[in-house]
Write a structure and sequence with these properties.
7-stranded antiparallel beta sheet; two-stranded antiparallel sheet; fatty acid metabolism; 272 residues; binds ligand 3IX; Thiol Ester Dehydrase, Chain A; cell projection; EC 3.1.2.2; single chain
Length: 272
Amino acid sequence: MARTLCRIFKGCQSICSLPLMKTRLHPSASVLLRTVCVRRMLTLPFRFSPKAQDFSLPNSSWGAEMRQLYEHYNSQCEEEMKGEEKQDWAWKRVPSYNRTLKHATGGVYLSKIYQSKARFFTRNIKEPGAAFEYVLFVSKDEQKCVCIFQAGHLLEGPQGSLILKNHATAFFRRVQEEKYWIRYVHGGAIATMIDTVTVTHASVLTLLIMTANLNINYRRPIPLGSTVLIDSSLNKTEGRKVLISCKVTSTDGSKLHTEATALFVVSRLLGG
Ligand SMILES: CCCCC/C=C\C/C=C/C/C=C\C/C=C\CCCC(=O)SCCNC(=O)CCNC(=O)[C@H](O)C(C)(C)COP(=O)(O)OP(=O)(O)OC[C@H]1O[C@@H](n2cnc3c(N)ncnc32)[C@H](O)[C@@H]1OP(=O)(O)O
């Protein structure tokens, strides 16, 4: 019960603290949006899931690299109250659920109202590590967002071409036996992650946005199973438009895999 009340409170808190000041929200739309959201939460406590799983927390499928990077960013996140003072933080971990409305309401379970079977695309596979394993951190000033992404075996795309590099017969046979094929991540899966990271970044800055344009250059393939960093930075905001650029690199930053720019447009309801 106390947990449920705490969730309702957090949900209300997050709705009321949404960064509307950064968008030109019509005052009547603001009041309407908040009233509808808060009313929905207050009238539906029986729908709250006691099992809301935050998918951005470490699980057994995470490799050493993923864990190390998680610890690195997590150690710079907001700390618990120590005495009277709250510790300062440089980054904030973005919780991630398999139903999108949970994002908007700080973990409150609301999506049954709409479609009971709907699941967030990147979090819809139960087996840990099989597909999109990732965690996002947003920087204090919200100009930057970083994602640690481990690409699982269900994201297989093209196969590598080691065969071209060595024509020795024994080696050729082993290649044919598939022992030496390198598997890379599917380009669509990379695009999905870029969209997810940049849209989350833009969502921290404003409300109700849609991806209008995603421009991607694939520079180097990403080996399946490897961990990469996805860095996004705010380029500019212009009226209802939010422009974000994004880079996918190896974890040490030495290899550039992909670069992209994304344009988000704030809903007319908010932008006027
Ligand atoms: C630590 C705390 C963190 C808290 C985090 C909080 C939340 C985190 C949550 C995360 C997010 C959760 C879930 C996210 C869910 C899904 C993620 C994936 C996102 C997507 O996957 S989303 C689906 C794909 N997406 C579409 O399905 C869009 C279809 N589309 C449309 O719905 C319209 O098309 C729309 C709305 C885009 C615009 O329509 P509209 O009528 O409102 O606006 P209009 O057309 O007038 O354009 C206004 C200005 O944008 C320019 N403009 C427009 N489009 C352009 C283009 N393509 N290229 C260049 N410029 C463009 C115009 O030129 C004009 O510019 P100007 O003002 O300068 O003239």
